[in-house]
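Question (not urgent): is this output format expected?
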Amino acid sequence: MGAPNVPVRKWNKAIDSMLAAADAVRANPVLLERLKALPRDALPDDERPAWEDLLRPPVDELWDDPAALLADPRVGTTSLDIARAVYLVEDPLAERDGTDHGFPDARKLSHFGGLPLLGHSERAPDSPLLVQVDFGYLPYASISRTETRILREGGVPTEGMLQVFATADSDSRTAPDLPGGGVIVRYIAENDVVAARWSHSDEDGDYPWRGLKFSPGVTTEIKVWSSSVSELARWVEEEAYSAARMGCPDPTGWYGGFPDEASGIDAPRMRARPVSHLLGAVAVDFALDDYDTAVLRQELPLEDALDEHVLLIELAGVQALEDAFGDEGRLQVWMRRSDLHARRFDRIVSFLMSP
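Got this back:
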């Protein structure tokens, strides 16, 4: 049976009516609460997509206003915290560097894996490079410069370069005698990046070279745990991953492969794989336990009441870093806020997290 021959005007009218009905439901707190009370996994397969469309957290609309996102009736909870972050998304279309480092708008130096940018007399650490982030290029990567604003507000440099090296077999728990648990975070000032005109940063290293792009987004943290809050937090997180990956339709970044128009699958319903990020909160299922918190406080004691521990970066073991930290595990790097402002990237604590 072929597709029904419906006039465009009638089809558009039907779509408008459907959207208006959906908006009416979302604007009705009583109906939304009733929908939320329905067990998601118990819904029939033909009803679940409509339920998800009505209740899907509007991360793509409200990511830049965490308070509004929390207040939206589709989220509507005080049991979560939502914070902005900058996602580092593997980009299969990224070009490898072949430019003059003196022109930040033309540099292509941000990537997972590969080899680090080095000066003529510099020697790379013995550990493999996991990621290299060129902050100097960031203002030219976004018209709105939102990512730069998020980093600046978080105390992260907005110029220069950050490199993370690790063997991924030790951290601050298992190797407390090693600085950073064996993880090395190296910051290169902008002037030194400009001077480093020699490098092999476009070649593969222990991990394959994969270009990356920046995407602003949100992370979520559970304040008051319950099964429903935990499920909501994971849903917000999944939507944040999807929003970050939508600009990079790489099949390896999606469970089951990224859909195309011919597949007939609605792309937003696809589940995105985890995405690495700067700042924000750790992934919902990789929060610090009491022992981790004790290690963090012991290694990086807070001597000022205004100081705090902050997540510098969380790397996800997917794509270029596939299985680097176990099956979709994470590497978290923590700092004190005061050390971040002072650019003391030698003062870190690392945690390898497995599912």
